[in-house]
Design brief:
With 144 residues, the chain is of the alpha+beta class. It contains 4 helices and 6 strands. Strands 1, 2, 3, 4, 5 and 6 form a 6-stranded antiparallel β-sheet that branches. Strand 5 and strand 6 form a beta hairpin. It is globular, with a radius of gyration of 16 Å. It holds the Pfam family 4HBT_2. GO terms for molecular function: hydrolase activity.
Length: 144
């Protein structure tokens, strides 16, 4: 558990709700995408990127998002989602997530989102602004 907490400078605590479960009695797959969304926005807030992105003309948009389910989760539980950045390019980056189940004391789900910087006025990709790039690099973990 300590290794998990040491790996992630940005973590988001999410309480599993009864309504997150499906007819099979475990958290439904779509719920993890909501958890990752919550962690993504929390990451932006904790790092100051949300303030940098307050200009609505440029915005990071999801190109695609994925989840890998390792262990079923049931209510009640609390997940700690660790978030970090990989694969930074001039106009895109990857945001990775690992969800740790407090009740199971194990990583239950991993995922990632490929994020592209987008100019909302021209509907075109645009380079990541320098001040945003500086922050992203601080939270980048290169995977080997």
């Amino acid at each position: 558990m300590q290794a998990f907490f040491d790996k992630f400078p940005i973590k988001t605590k999410i309480n599993v709700a009864w309504g997150d479960m499906d007819a099979l009695g475990h958290v439904n797959n779509v719920s993890y995408f909501r958890y990752f969304e919550t962690a993504r926005i929390d990451f932006l807030a904790q790092t100051g990127l949300l303030e940098i992105l307050s200009d609505p003309s440029h915005s990071p948009v999801l190109r695609d998002t994925h989840a890998h389910y390792k262990r079923p989760v049931v209510f009640p539980d609390t997940l700690i989602v660790g978030t970090y950045i990989t694969d930074i390019k001039s106009d895109r980056f990857t945001m990775r997530y690992e969800a740790y189940s407090e009740s199971q004391q194990a990583i239950c789900t991993t995922g990632y989102a490929n994020v592209v910087m987008f100019n909302m006025h021209t509907s075109q990709k645009t380079p990541i602004p320098a001040n945003m790039m500086d922050v992203l690099k601080q939270y980048c973990i290169e995977e080997g």
